[in-house]
Amino acid sequence: MKPVLLLTALTPAVWGTTYAVTTEFLPPDRPLLAGTLRALPAGLLLLVLTRRLPRGVWWWRSAVLGTLNIGLFFALLFVTAYRLPGGMAAVLGAAQPLIVAGLTVLLLTERVALRTVVAAVVGAGGVALAVLTATARLDALGILAGLAGTASMAFGLVLTKRWGRPDVPLLTSTGWQLTAGGLLLAPVTLGFEGLPPRLSAANLAGYAYLALIGTALAYSLWFWGLERLPAARVALLGLLSPVVATAVGWAALGQSLTPLQLAGMVLAFAAVIWGQTGPRPTSGRSGVAGQRRSAFSTMWSGKPTRAARNMA
User: Fold this and answer.
1) pTM value?
2) Pair 30, 143: CB distance under 8 Å
3) Helices (H), 193-230
4) CA distance 161 to 113
5) Which of 79, 93, 82 lies closest to 12 in space, CA to CA?
6) Contact predicate 31/139, CB 8 Å
7) What is the pLDDT of residues 123-156, one digit of tens each?
8) DSSP 3-state assignment of 98?
């Protein structure tokens, strides 16, 4: 697997640790606050570091992408988490690669490899085996919220691919989206949850991890990979998140892991790997090391160079 795939895959792997961090470090029953403190501080930090604001159409485009990828997605995700077991929510999220595949054909007019579609179906089945229990209860509103949240992020991912980004550093455009999403969540959080009376050192450490590692770094890598990989393949990597969450729950939280769950994890992981294989584009003359340097430089400079794009 090429470096760009491995680095992009770090994002869903990091997102897979969110459940453990939330249950062990954050105050209970504050999901909207968690979303707000994930997005808004991370976005403002990137804006301070890059010191650039949107111009022209990128004001409304950043607002749309921030709403779809961050604000609306987080809000619907938390409604799902409240009304459905975590396993059922993960299964609904596993439908994202299939939605992205359909939107890719409609909006990007790109062909999606049959291998990718089959891998998405097999991977979703593996996720279901890994996280879904026999006691999972169904709730109509929770299911609708879960599917809507999945569709929101899928649509945002495809629009991000369609619009690209202006000639600004990747961290700058990521900061625009995170700030827009955080500003959308903030009044909703204050209206429905309010602020806790106090935050412990563990709470602050948990929020800091989610904002810096789980959001600022993770979303930067996610969008970085999206510039270099087909949208459907990037979405397929998202299946790693519930697999990692299950593994972390077993290793760090002492949760049980049945043979059927283990088989589901292996199946989902194998589907992700298989779905990423296929014909390899020709690399640039600068070699892999030079391509990697060019790719990482776009986080602080402008759009990716041709050598960097060839990493995919």
Assistant:
1) 0.84
2) no
3) 201-211, 218-226
4) 17
5) 93
6) no
7) 999 888 887 765 556 678 878 888 898 899 999 9
8) helix
Would you give the end-to-end CA distance of the chain in angstroms? 10
Q: What distance lies between CA 140 and its chain's CA centroid?
A: 24
CA angle centred on 11, ends 8 and 12, rounded to 5°? 110
Per-residue pLDDT reduced to its tens digit, 211-266? 999 999 999 999 999 999 999 999 999 999 888 888 888 888 777 778 888 899 99
The tokens of 48 are what? 């301070």
- DSSP state, 84? S
Cβ neighbors of 34 (< 8 A, separation 6 or more) are 22, 26, 78, 207, 210
Which token pair is 31? 């999901």
How far is Cα 222 from Cα 130, in angstroms, rounded to an integer? 24
CB contact at 8 A, 215 and 42: yes
The residue assigned the tokens 């950043």 is: 62
Q: How far apart are CA 288 and CA 221, in angstroms?
A: 18
* Distance in angstroms (rounded) separating the CA atoms of residues 214 and 205: 12
Q: What is the pLDDT of residues 47-73, one digit of tens each?
A: 999 999 999 999 999 999 999 999 998
Eight-state DSSP code of residue 17: T
127: amino acid identity, one letter = V
